[in-house]
Amino acid sequence: MPLSAGGASRSFWAAVLCLPFFLVLRVLLADAPVGPRVVVAELVGFVAGWAGYALATLPMAFALGRGPLWPRFLATWNWTSLIQYAAILGLTLVTKSGLSGWLGQGVQLAGLGYAVWLQWFATGLALKVSGGRAAGFVLLDLVLGLMVSAFVTDLALG
């Protein structure tokens, strides 16, 4: 992964590539019909969550003495997100196509576990930090995701 700011900037193309996966997961595969207000709220949440996490990790990287490695971490995180979205979409399509009950839930849980593990592993490699410190970055992503989800719900409901 690139160590330059330019390389990190170019890696945001991963967000553009993830957007169709995100929309399929959040809009097309939703359990209930989704109106335009919900689509707009989801799009705002997608952008805010992606940019918010990227910005929130910068002071964390500097606090750990890993500031110079942050561009590489950011590029790694962006491209890893593409792998995560593709895996989760694939598993969701498999479970929605007839794999139901505890087996379907188990497959979804395994996919989520893989996504979290992948982010943890990639973070540790990119920043050259211990597993515990990498887990802090993953935890930040999960917490921000929950906060953005609550915001999106409020925005969608008006």
Describe this entry's structure for a reader.
- There is one protein chain.
- By secondary structure, the chain is mainly α.
- It is built from six helices and no strands.
- It has helices at about 5-10, 15-30, 35-65, 70-95, 100-125, 130-155.
- α2 (about 15-30) crosses α3 and α5 (about 100-125) packs across α6 (about 130-155).
- The mean pLDDT is about 95.
Q: State the helicity in percent bands.
A: over 70%
* Class by SSE composition: mainly alpha
Query: What count of domains describes the coordinates?
Result: 1
What characterizes the major β-sheet?
none
Tell me the total number of β-strands: 0
Overall 3D form: globular
Topology:
Blueprint: H1 5-10, H2 13-28, H3 36-63, H4 70-96, H5 101-127, H6 131-157
Helix pairs in contact: 2-3, 2-4, 3-6, 4-5, 5-6
Give me some keywords for this one:
6 helices, 83% helix, 158 residues, mainly alpha
Short description:
Helices cover 83% and strands 0% of the residues. The chain is mainly alpha-helical.
